[in-house]
Amino acid sequence: MTHTRPPPIRNLMPAPHIKICGLTTPAAIDAALAARADYIGLVSFPRSPRHLSAADAAALAARAKGRAKIVGLFVDPADSLLSELVAAAKLDVIQLHGEEPPARVAAVRAAFGLPVWKALPVATKQDVERAQAFTGAADLVLFDAKAPKGAAMPGGLGLVFDWTLLAAHKGPLPWGLAGGLSPANVTEAVRATKAPLVDVSSGVESAPGMKDAALIAEFCKAAREA
Ligand SMILES: O=C(O)c1ccccc1N[C@@H]1O[C@H](COP(=O)(O)O)[C@@H](O)[C@H]1O
User: Which ranges carry the N-(5'phosphoribosyl) anthranilate isomerase (PRAI) domain (predicted)?
Assistant: First the structure.
C-alpha cells in the first residue's frame, strides 16, 4: 500500500500587507499596482523629496483608486491641509507621522471619519510600549526608526531599528513595520517581527523621490514569500 505524504507545512503566517509609500509619478503608481501593493502612500510634507501638491496627489490617487487603498501621509498637519487632501485625493487612510499625541489622533479620526495610522519612532522598548496610549485613538500603529536629532524629516530616511524590540509585541492595536526596509532585508524583517504590514519608501528608490519599478516588484515578492 502506498502512502501519499501530506505537503510540508511551510508557513502558517498570512503574508503581510504591503504599503509602498512616497509615490510621485504615474509610472511609480503603475509599478506598485503591478506588484499588487495593498496600499500606496502619497506624501504631503513640503520638506520631503516625495511631497505632492493636492492636484498631483489627486491625479495619482485617481490612477490607483479601487486597485489599492490610498494613504495620505502627513506630519503634524493642520485640519485645513487634511481637508484639502482628503477631498482632492479621496484618501482611504490618514497616516500621521509627526508628534501628534493620542488626543490629536482621535480628533483627526473623528473629524474625517477615516482610519488613522499613527507612526511611532522607535529606538527603545519604551517607544514600542507607547503604542498602548493610542488605543481607541488610532486604527493602527506603524513602528518606524527614530530619526536622529535635527533630521529634516521624521521618516523616509532609510533607517532601520532593532527588530528584536518587536519580537514579543502583542499590543492591542493592529500594527505595521517601517524604517529602512528594502528587497534585501524585508524577508528577515518579517520573519523576525511577524509584522502584519510592511511599509517602504526609500528602499525601493534609485534616488530620493525616484521609485524604481524593479525594486518595488522585488520588495513585494520578497515580503509575500517571507
Ligand atoms: O517618505 C517621506 O518622505 C516621509 C516624510 C516624512 C515622514 C515620513 C516619511 N516616510 C515614511 O517613513 C517611513 C520609513 O521610510 P523609509 O522606508 O525608511 O524610507 C515610511 O512609513 C515612509 O512612508
Answer: 18-221
